[in-house]
């Protein structure tokens, strides 16, 4: 059985449902990627989530939801005296504003047990993590996670890093820049977003972004740019540009990058090559931005059509 594993944090989400009412859901970038990868990969693949949660009812609810979506949760560790992180969305004059309660989140302990982590990664065909996964960890935790990923990579796991910048989660900008390099240095594939790289590193073009992560040792780099040109560099195929699907009305860009990553990595996992994987990724993300919420029910006939 081939195994696709994502590592990170999934939180409780409270989204406004009108008149001081909130709808409770669960959300997290790496979980979103696992959700879409499960839809896209054939059944001879296991899709697993690696994280830490509490020993309480809300953590159990989240695990039930993941299991219900076909995700293997045997890689989720239960920690006493901790629970899930939580965030609340509020609409202030139509703009979304976020408040977070995540300092005591169990997922911050994801890398506290190196032996356990190594066991989770053992034999994985593909392992995906993100800038958020790194940001929530302590400096020692980041070292432990990256060392475990580097070992897995040396043993044949394809490691993929979605840069996902969240400046508020990092100690400061220098630490965030160093953390991104650290993540890229243990990865085969890096999935940055051009606007974020432009802001943090002052990149003038996607070629600058590619040059930096290539110097970190990545062999495939897909630089996303929303509705703009997607630029992918690959060690054997060089640089290629792709145009995202044209969309008249974008409804909600939540999880655009996460679903793109799932599509691209699922394509690579199925050995479809760079161009077909890029088209799969763009087709998935196009559906996601045309629907509300992070976990969209994909129309697979449309996606298979894109593949033909
Ligand atoms: P991130 O969320 O990681 O910043 P992007 O916003 O660049 O990522 O979006 C990821 C992918 O989603 C893009 O490469 C593209 O394929 C798709 N996408 C996002 N916004 C749009 C849009 N307005 N029209 C078409 N495709 C889009």
From TrEMBL:
Any one of the GO BP annotations: D-glucuronate catabolic process
Sorted UniProt keywords: Kinase, Transferase
Domain of life according to the entry: Bacteria
Residue ranges of domain Carbohydrate kinase PfkB in the record: 7-295
Keyword Cytoplasm in annotation: no
GO function term, MF aspect, one: 2-dehydro-3-deoxygluconokinase activity
A cellular component term, taken from the record's GO annotations: cytosol
Family: Belongs to the carbohydrate kinase PfkB family.
Full protein name: 2-keto-3-deoxygluconate kinase
Source organism of this protein record: Primorskyibacter flagellatus
């Amino acid at each position: 059985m081939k195994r696709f594993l994502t590592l990170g944090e999934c939180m409780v989400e409270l989204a406004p449902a009108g008149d001081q009412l909130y709808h409770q859901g669960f959300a997290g970038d790496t979980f979103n990627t696992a959700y879409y990868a499960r839809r896209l990969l054939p059944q001879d693949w296991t899709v697993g989530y690696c994280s830490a949660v509490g020993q309480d009812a809300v953590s159990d609810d989240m695990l039930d939801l993941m299991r219900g979506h076909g995700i293997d949760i045997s890689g989720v560790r239960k920690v006493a005296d901790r629970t899930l992180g939580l965030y609340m969305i509020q609409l202030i004059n139509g703009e979304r504003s976020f408040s977070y309660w995540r300092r005591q989140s169990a997922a911050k302990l994801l890398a506290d047990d190196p032996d356990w982590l190594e066991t989770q990664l053992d034999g994985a065909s593909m392992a995906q993590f993100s800038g958020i996964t790194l940001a929530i960890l302590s400096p020692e935790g980041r070292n432990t996670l990256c060392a475990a990923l580097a070992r897995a990579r040396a043993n044949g796991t394809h490691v993929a890093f979605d840069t996902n910048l969240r400046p508020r989660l990092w100690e400061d900008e220098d630490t965030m820049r160093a953390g991104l390099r650290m993540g890229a240095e243990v990865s085969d594939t890096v999935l940055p977003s051009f606007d974020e790289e432009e802001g943090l590193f002052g990149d003038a073009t996607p070629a600058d972004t590619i040059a930096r992560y290539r110097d970190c040792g990545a062999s495939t780099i897909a630089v996303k740019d929303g509705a703009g040109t997607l630029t992918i560099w690959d060690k054997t195929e060089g640089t290629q540009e792709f145009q995202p699907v044209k969309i008249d009305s974008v409804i909600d860009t939540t999880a655009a990058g996460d679903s793109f990553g799932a599509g691209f990595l699922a394509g690579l996992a199925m050995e479809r090559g760079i161009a077909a994987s890029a088209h799969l990724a763009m087709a998935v993300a196009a559906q996601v931005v045309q629907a509300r919420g992070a976990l969209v029910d994909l129309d697979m006939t449309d996606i298979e059509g894109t593949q033909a």
